[in-house]
Structures are given as structure tokens and as C-alpha cells.
Design a protein that fits this description.
Elements lengths: L15 H10 L5 H39 L22 H5 L3 H33 L16 H4 L1 E6 L10 H7 L3 E2 H8 L5 E2 L17 E4 L5 E4 L20 H19 L3 E4 L3 E3 H7 L2 H6 L3 E5 L9 E6 L4 H5 L6 E2 L6 E10 L18 E11 L5 H20 L3 E5 L11 E9 L4 E10 L3 H6 L2 E2 L10 E2 L1 E9 H11 L48 H7 L3 H6 L11
Helix pairs in contact: 1-2, 2-4, 6-14, 8-14
Length: 566
């Protein structure tokens, strides 16, 4: 992932000042541009000298051949005249006056100079690349210039009812419907590990099995009650309930099916990607910081041969964007075949380094999740990629509108863009219980920044004297399932349970009611469903204490001040 080197070369029509300005707007080091220009200038001089030395070597061989053909004496003198030692000024006439033995000596000196020049050129090339890969793409003029995304992301538009409501957050709801096993997930997979599982139906006959208050809660906050443990593993009968069918798992699969169908209708080709990528290929699609902060490394045998003791590094993908970006690596894409649109389906793996303490509960930010991705290869001409950019974010908007999830679209500030993105729009869904917008979709136009290092070229083949062009590459989330489930839980909660969005009902198991199993019964109704006349009668302390016990500890409820005690 790099910019075109000619953009740094004034004699090639480039403008280093423009790139320096873009770096400053990204709040990144503009000195990298100067370092690159210096290394590139020295590299070009070194390359020019190496080319001349190779020509001189060929000239030496040619002159020796001519002298041997004329049967001139080879000679024994290997001493070189002082004026000949300056290889840069050596000409054919100078060589003609030398003996074959002297020319052979000159050729050895040329070989040594070429080797020295190549060593220096490789060193300069590495220095140049170190700077080049850390210089971001040129920013689109519409990107807000700021290093504070919390304050300065620009809201482009809002859809739906985005008002705060006194409801439960997804962190609580995913436990209240018993569709999430976090404790055992952490034991099995480590931090942020989880199981999506069945949803239990809790009926009147099951109340004695619940860990809820049995007695009177005093206004002084003292409990006068008994606690009866709840067997979380079985229903009272010891058999699975009729609806004990892993509905949250089916809800996730419904989202996947609906997202794929939506994209297929719009001409996207569904593609299921590899989960592993070779190190050398991942280096071409991911920036350096991702290897430390995001990607998981896997080390395995280099081949399937039993006597092969070599090992190979691979990386788990953080998004299907990565393998799809490399799908047409080293290819020429014909103009008539563009745009090429893929609907990527994959499990994604992310370390989430730097997210310590953020979203540690629930399933919003996890190390492993399913995601449907939009990925497009576009023509670099006639603003086609920017038209596609708007089309892709519109497709994502239509998807969430059809699910009935309120959202707003934000233009991400320059300081928060990754190196590849020229511009990024995020779709942030409204979470009424949390009272916040949370990111569900990121849509980026990377122009030719990714394609250049992957060598995905535009056209049939290179035309004589024409500069090679590269396709533009765009990506946009369609549906990260766990995050979308969180949004559904908060936006579709009722006093009796969680409704299934209308568009997803056809993908749910046969015979399922149009509603997920109801929430487990609480000592008091959900605060968002209380009348004003009831609200003053609910004491925060009483409500929180009534929810204590093993079940509360498992659910990790958060007690916040919602109502005033009478």
C-alpha cells in the first residue's frame, strides 16, 4: 500500500509539497516526505551510475572480442593508466588503446564498482520504502481536518428516531435473554471470548428456579428475602424447551443471509474467503501498525511433507477485505470488466490492542466475529470510484433502513484515517438504551493506494511509452453480525421480549414466533416501559438489590440513576 513514486519527483510532474500538506492534515510526520525525496534522489543517481557501469562492462567485452578477432596480442601488463581509473569518464576510444589484459583488468574494476553500487542502491531502496509505506494516501478535499474524531467528525445525515430512551443496553439484554455465555467463553478462548447460544423461555412454573428476589424489598434498602439458586443448565423438566433452539445463532445467520441476498440483487458476487494469509501477501494489504495491534500470527509447517522441518508464518484475517484485495494480485483488469463487485463472507479475527477497558462486556467488541463486506475494483477514470463510493454507503444505508435501525452517517476526520483511505464514511447506529451512536459500517475509497503494491493494473497490457495505471479499490462493511445483533436488541426490545425485524423473519427457524423468547422476569419492569405515575415509586437501590445474586453477577448489570425515590 503506497503512493506513486512519481508524485514525489518534480521532473516527472510530481508535487512533494502537496504530499507534505496531506501528511500535515493527517497529523502525521511530514518529514517522511523529505526523507523519501532525498533517498529517492540518491537512489536514482545510483541507478543511473549502475546503468552506465553495465554499459561500460558490455563495452569492455565488445572491445576484447574485436581485439581477439583481429588477433591482437593479449599482453601481460595489467597496470591501468591513471586516467582510465576514473570509470565514469571511460570511452570506447580509451579502451581501444589498451591491451586485452588491461581491458580485462578494467572489467574487473567495473564489476567491483557495480557490486558496490548495487549494495548502496538496495540500502537506499529500503530507506525509501520505509518512508513510502508510512506516508498516507492523498486526502479527498471533503475530509474534515482534525485529530479529534469525538468532537469533529462531521455528521452528513441522520435517519430514524435517535432519541434517548430509558431502556436496557445491549450488554444487559444479551444476558437477560441468556443468548450469550461470556464466562465460559473467556475460559475457553481468553478475554472477549464468547459463545452465542440458546435463548431460554422462562414461564410461570420456572420462577422458583430463577435467582430473583422472593420477599419484600424495604425502602431503606434492606432486603427481607430468600434467594433460591437457578439451574442455568436445564429447564425445570430437565429437557430443552420448545424454543430452546439457539435463536440468537439463527438471528446471526438471518443477518448473513439477508445481507448476502441484498448484495447479490445489486450485482455483487458472493465469495467466501480464506482465513489465513501468507506473510508476504498480508504485508501488501495491511499497514505496519496492524501487525502489532490487530493481526494474529500463526506459525505452522512449511509444507505437508513429513521430512520438511521448515516453518511458515501466516496471519489470521481481520476482515475479508484483505484476502479479496489480493484476489487479483499481479493481474491486469480490463476496463470492460469493471467494476468488479464482491460480497465477502468470513470470520474475522482482531487482537483489539489499544481497546483495553472499552466494551469489555457483551459482544459488541470481540476478538472473533462474522462479517459481510462490500469490496469493489473500479476504474481510475472519470470519477468512477467516487461514484461507487457513494453507491456503496447508500447500499449499507438501505440495509439498515430495511432493518429499522436508526443511524447517522459521519465523515471521519483526517487524523483518524488509516494510510490507505482517501476518505471514510462511517454508519453509526443509534443505541437508545446506551444513549449513544456506535459504529456498524466503515466505507472507504483507497483509490490506487492498495492496488499499486499488489500490482493490480488497469487495462489489457502496458502500451509502449504509456505509464502503467492501477485500478481503484473500495471497501465497506455491510454487516458485522455481533454489532448488528446488539443494535437489534436495543432497538427492538419490548416489555415482553425482543422482536425480530420484519425482514429477518423469513430466515428464522420454521415455527418460530415473530418474537425472540421473552426477557427473563425481573422484580420490576424495564425502566423504559414505566408510566410516569409509576416511575417515582421505583427506588434505584431497591431495584439493584433485587437483581443481586448469582444471576446478576453473571449478567454484569450496571446500576445507573434512572428515577428518583419517593
Amino acid at each position: 500500500m503506497v503512493l506513486d513514486l512519481d508524485l514525489f519527483r518534480v521532473d516527472k510532474g510530481g508535487d512533494p509539497a502537496l504530499i507534505r500538506e496531506s501528511q500535515e492534515k493527517r497529523f502525521k510526520d511530514p518529514g517522511l516526505v523529505d526523507q523519501l525525496v532525498k533517498a529517492d534522489s540518491e537512489w536514482r543517481r545510483c541507478r543511473f551510475r549502475a546503468d552506465n557501469l553495465n554499459k561500460l562492462k558490455n563495452l569492455c567485452s565488445k572491445t576484447i572480442g574485436e581485439k581477439m578477432k583481429k588477433k591482437e596480442p593479449v599482453g601481460n601488463d595489467e597496470s591501468i593508466p591513471e586516467d582510465v581509473l576514473n570509470l565514469d569518464d571511460l570511452t570506447a576510444d580509451t579502451l581501444t588503446n589498451l591491451k586485452v589484459s588491461q581491458i580485462k583488468k578494467v572489467r574487473l574494476l567495473v564489476d567491483e564498482a557495480i557490486l558496490k553500487c548495487d549494495t548502496e542502491r538496495i540500502k537506499l531502496e529500503a530507506e525509501r520504502f520505509e518512508s513510502l509505506r508510512e506516508i498516507g494516501n492523498l486526502l479527498h478535499p471533503s475530509v474534515p481536518i482534525s485529530d479529534d474524531e469525538d468532537a469533529d467528525n462531521k455528521v452528513e445525515r441522520i435517519w430514524g428516531d435517535c432519541t434517548v430512551r430509558k431502556k436496557y443496553s445491549h450488554v444487559d439484554l444479551v444476558v437477560m435473554v441468556d443468548g450469550f455465555e461470556g464466562e465460559k467463553g473467556a475460559v475457553v478462548a481468553g478475554s472477549r471470548g464468547y459463545f452465542l447460544k440458546e435463548l431460554r423461555v422462562i414461564g410461570q412454573s420456572d420462577k422458583e428456579h430463577m435467582c430473583c428476589a422472593q420477599g419484600v424489598v424495604g425502602m431503606d434498602g434492606q432486603r427481607q428475602q430468600t434467594q433460591i439458586s437457578w439451574d442455568r443448565g436445564k429447564m425445570p423438566s430437565g429437557k430443552p424447551s420448545k424454543k430452546d433452539m439457539g435463536v440468537l445463532v439463527f438471528l446471526e445467520q438471518a443477518l448473513i443471509q439477508f445481507a448476502l441476498r441484498t448484495l447479490a440483487i445489486r450485482g455483487y458476487t458472493p465469495i467466501y474467503t480464506p482465513f489465513f494469509m501468507r506473510k508476504e501477501v498480508m504485508q501488501e494489504v495491511a499497514q505496519l501498525s496492524q501487525f502489532d495491534e490487530e493481526l494474529y500470527k500463526v506459525i505452522g509447517k512449511g509444507s505437508e511433507k513429513s521430512d520438511d522441518n521448515s516453518y511458515e508464518e501466516k496471519y489470521l484475517i481481520a476482515t475479508s477485505e484483505q484476502p479479496i484485495a489480493a484476489l487479483h494480485r499481479d493481474e491486469w483488469l480490463r476496463p470492460e470488466d469493471l467494476p468488479i463487485k464482491y460480497a465477502g463472507l468470513s470470520t474475522c479475527f482482531r487482537q483489539e490492542v489499544g481497546s483495553h477497558g472499552r466494551d469489555t462486556r457483551g459482544i459488541f467488541r470481540v476478538h472473533q466475529f462474522e462479517k459481510i463486506e462490500q469490496f469493489v475494483y473500479s476504474s481510475p477514470h472519470d470519477n468512477k470510484s467516487w461514484e461507487m463510493f457513494e453507491e456503496m454507503i447508500a447500499t449499507a444505508e438501505e440495509f439498515y433502513q430495511s432493518l429499522g435501525i436508526p443511524y447517522h452517517i459521519v465523515n471521519i476526520v483526517s487524523g483518524s484515517l488509516n494510510h490507505a483511505a482517501s476518505k471514510k464514511l462511517d454508519l453509526e447506529a443509534w443505541f437508545p438504551g446506551s444513549g449513544a451512536f456506535r459504529e456498524l459500517v466503515s466505507c472507504s475509497n483507497c483509490t490506487d493506494y492498495q492496488a499499486r503494491r499488489l500490482r493490480i493494473r488497469y487495462g489489457q497490457t502496458k502500451k509502449m511509452m504509456d505509464k502503467v495505471e492501477f485500478v481503484h479499490m473500495l471497501n465497506a462493511t455491510m454487516c458485522a453480525t455481533t454489532r448488528t445483533i446488539c443494535a437489534i436488541l436495543e432497538n427492538y426490545q419490548t416489555e415482553k421480549g425482543i422482536l425480530v425485524p420484519e425482514k429477518l423473519k423469513e430466515f428464522m427457524p420454521p415455527g418460530e414466533a415473530p418474537c425472540l423468547p421473552p426477557l427473563v422476569h425481573l422484580p420490576a419492569p424495564a425502566p423504559g416501559f414505566l408510566d410516569d405515575s409509576q416511575a417515582p415509586k421505583l427506588c434505584l437501590v431497591s431495584w439493584c438489590q433485587a437483581l443481586q445474586g448469582a444471576w446478576l453477577k453473571s449478567s454484569q448489570y450496571r446500576c445507573v440513576s434512572l428515577f428518583k425515590c419517593s
